[in-house]
Write a structure and sequence with these properties.
This protein is α+β, with helices and mostly antiparallel strands and 203 residues long. Helix content is 16%, strand content 47%. A hairpin with a 3-residue loop joins strand 7 and strand 8.
């Protein structure tokens, strides 16, 4: 009986409940290929489920718990969405990890490509590109960019505010949340925190 119990805890569980398919990892990571050839790695004590019948027909949507790494196959016609308890990520094709293994925190780390990251039920969306990470918490539902390369931050600010931003020293990283702040306030904050000078040129 003990041997059977160990086997159940070690090997992944594949379960179908009507049109839903669920994959669960227990004490070991599990690699799994989704119907569109996107690959995922479930870390221990994590799970994903998706609607097998509708997957790819209308949208590629996966619900998850725990910590899961995604390598998403590019498909312009069918955006890929990951929904957890706290956060939602929407992509076309990229490599990223969503970590909700802590009950009160969701962290997204992007390896390559670009994703839209938001808190469940919140309208604000943050664009993250390769090398960037962000988090939301139950107490702080606004997306907070964490440990992002300064050039990536300036690139996204430039795109959003339609200006050209450059810094005197871009070999730095930044952790910050900029909700409800003007561009000038954001620039002053970055200059003060990182001890750099930022130049702004309107496009």
């Amino acid at each position: 009986a003990a041997a059977i119990l160990v086997a159940v805890l070690i090997y992944p569980r594949f379960r179908e409940n009507g049109a839903w398919k669920e994959v669960t990892a227990y004490s070991h990571p599990v690699d799994y290929m989704l119907p569109d050839s996107s690959s995922i790695t479930l870390f221990p004590h994590s799970s994903v489920r998706f609607h097998a019948k509708d997957y790819r027909k209308s949208s590629r949507k996966v619900h998850m718990e725990g910590k899961v790494a995604f390598s998403v196959k590019h498909d312009n016609a069918h955006p890929f969405t990951v929904e957890g308890k706290l956060s939602q990520v929407r992509v076309l094709g990229t490599v990223f990890t969503v970590d909700e293994s802590r009950a009160d925190t969701a962290i997204v780390q992007v390896t390559s490509g670009k994703v839209q990251f938001s808190a469940i039920g919140q309208p604000d969306v943050v664009i993250l590109t390769g090398g960037m990470a962000a988090q939301v918490t139950e107490e702080q539902p606004d997306v907070q960019v964490i440990n992002a390369p300064l050039p990536k931050v300036l690139e996204e600010l430039s795109r959003y505010y339609k200006v050209k931003l450059s810094a005197s020293n871009e070999n730095k990283r930044l952790t910050a949340s900029f909700k409800n702040k003007s561009l000038d306030e954001i620039i002053r904050f970055i200059e003060k925190v990182l001890n750099v000078k930022i130049e702004k040129v309107k496009q």
